[in-house]
Write a structure and sequence with these properties.
Helices cover 61% and strands 7% of the residues. By secondary structure, it is mainly α. The chain has one domain. It starts with 7 loop residues before the first helix and ends in a 22-residue tail after the last helix. A hairpin with a 4-residue loop joins strand 1 and strand 2. Helix 2 runs antiparallel to helix 5 and helix 6 runs antiparallel to helix 8. The protein has a two-stranded antiparallel sheet with strand order 1-2. The radius of gyration is 19 Å and the shape is globular. This is DUF7704 domain-containing protein.
Length: 178
């Protein structure tokens, strides 16, 4: 049986939904109402140029002129990092150690700021401060990170219940799982 020290709602968000978001690239085409989801690491491996080019909205890049080996390597490595982060989220959130879960959330909360900063630098201030210009990659990188960041800090602060106070950690004998 899997144990976690996180309260139920944060456990669902950080150990189920967020890892799935690491693995999913959501491509919403509002004009034709097509919504497709594909595994991010597959996208990075099957179409690394598209993954690279869509980091900034309204790009006019073409693969032959704007996708050197360095960009290919970074795109493929980023896909691997997303897969690693999904695994780490599950491992740390299902840990029976309250300090592991707490410090994982704190570390990732600080990493969220770097993620938002990277997106801001990449798109520039005109696009960053005008959400009407954002594509799905910017929405996920900025708004998604900001929402998850707020949720992380609320969890660490105990708003959803104390980390380590999950009743699911009780064994049949009534003792806490270590």
């Amino acid at each position: 049986m899997a144990y976690s020290t996180l309260p139920t709602i944060p456990l669902i968000v950080f150990a189920v939904i967020e890892p799935a978001l690491f693995l999913l690239v959501i491509d919403l085409h509002i004009t034709n109402c097509l919504c497709s989801r594909v595994w991010a690491w597959i996208v990075c491996n099957q179409d690394p140029f598209n993954y690279y080019a869509t980091q900034v909205p309204n790009h006019t890049l073409n693969e032959q002129d704007h996708f050197p080996g360095q960009a290919l390597a970074l795109s493929l490595q980023m896909g691997n990092v997303l897969l690693l982060l999904a695994a780490m989220a599950v491992i740390c959130c299902f840990s029976s150690s309250p300090s592991t879960a707490k410090w994982y959330l704190v570390a990732v909360a600080f990493a969220d700021y770097g993620h938002i900063y990277g997106a801001a630098r990449g798109v520039g201030p005109d696009v960053f401060w005008d959400p009407s210009q954002w594509n799905d990659m910017v929405w996920g990188g900025v708004a998604g990170s900001a929402i998850l960041n707020l949720f992380r800090w609320l969890t660490v602060l105990g708003v959803f219940g104390p980390i380590g106070g999950n009743a699911a950690l009780q064994t049949k004998s009534g003792k806490k799982h270590a």
